[in-house]
Write a structure and sequence with these properties.
The chain has one domain: Rossmann fold (3-Layer(aba) Sandwich), CATH 3.40.50.300. The chain contains seven helices and ten strands. It is globular and about 45 Å long. The chain binds adenosine-5'-triphosphate. Belongs to the ABC transporter superfamily. It comes from Mesoflavibacter zeaxanthinifaciens subsp. sabulilitoris. GO terms for molecular function: ATP binding; ATP hydrolysis activity; transmembrane transporter activity.
């Protein structure tokens, strides 16, 4: 039986008083790879922010991993985020420390204590993104694509039930975008569930998957035609 990791029913997404998306219905199951597309300003980031608790869900129903978005309390947000892996367009690595220290920082902040176990987990996630030998480097010593791989590794640290990637290739050239996408495809094949916001249509064509579109304050599924 498929396990639902995200479900929205008649959910409306607001930025302050203004309605961004209305009556959103969607279900994401374990193992899915789902795209969220739409023009600039159509609401993709607002949608993602609602899912990780940065914007409150005030209308409709929303369940993500084991949390109810309607009743989510401020103090529960860190626990929700531990079950999610979040990847941003601009990587958001800490620039003052090495990759190993970036990853150790997250593990410590999420309750890990055993040094050997932390080291082992860091090696495992760096290996998953093909960056096993780069742990000693500082972020500025890596290319954009490599930094994004590290950001994906960081998202994987606590074995998230769902990865939310908001324009993960937005700062990358087309070839590097494909390399990062291959990493996301690999981790999806290994069982990770991914919801990815993008406006990169070339990626959609190359890696077809279930696609939701934000347009005109609505979210609907689009069916890709095979040409
Ligand atoms: N912090 C904010 N406060 C008020 N309105 C906002 C805020 N952020 C976004 N908006 C508005 O919400 C709407 C949706 O923006 P959003 O950033 O979600 O779109 P997007 O599809 O992610 O666009 P992009 O691809 O440019 O990131 C826009 O009309 C935008 O002006």
């Amino acid at each position: 039986m498929s396990q639902t990791v995200l479900e929205l029913k008649d959910a409306s997404i607001f930025q302050g008083e203004s309605l961004v998306l209305s009556n959103v219905n969607l279900q994401v199951n374990k193992g899915d790879f789902v795209y969220l597309i739409g023009k600039t300003g159509s609401g993709k980031s607002s949608f993602m922010k609602t899912l990780y608790g940065d914007l409150k869900l005030t209308q409709g129903e929303g369940h993500i991993v084991d949390f109810n978005l309607r009743t989510l309390k401020e103090k529960e947000i860190p626990f929700l985020r531990r079950k999610l892996g979040i990847v941003f367009q601009d990587f958001k690595l800490l620039t003052d420390r090495t990759i190993n220290d970036n990853l150790t920082f997250v593990l410590k902040a999420t309750g890990w204590k055993d040094k050997d176990k932390m080291k082992e987990r860091i090696e495992t996630v760096l290996d998953k993104v093909g960056m096993k030998t780069k742990g000693f480097k500082f972020p500025h010593e890596l290319s954009g694509g490599e930094q994004q791989r590290i950001a994906i590794a960081r998202a994987l640290l606590n074995e998230p039930e769902l990865i939310l990637a908001d324009e993960p290739t937005g700062n990358l050239d087309p070839q590097t975008s494909i390399e990062v996408m291959e990493v996301l495809q690999d981790i999806n094949k290994n069982g990770n569930t991914i919801l990815m916001a993008t406006h990169d249509y070339a990626l959609l064509l190359k890696y077809p998957s279930k696609t939701l579109k934000c347009d005109d304050n609505k979210v609907f599924e689009v069916v890709q035609r095979k040409s």
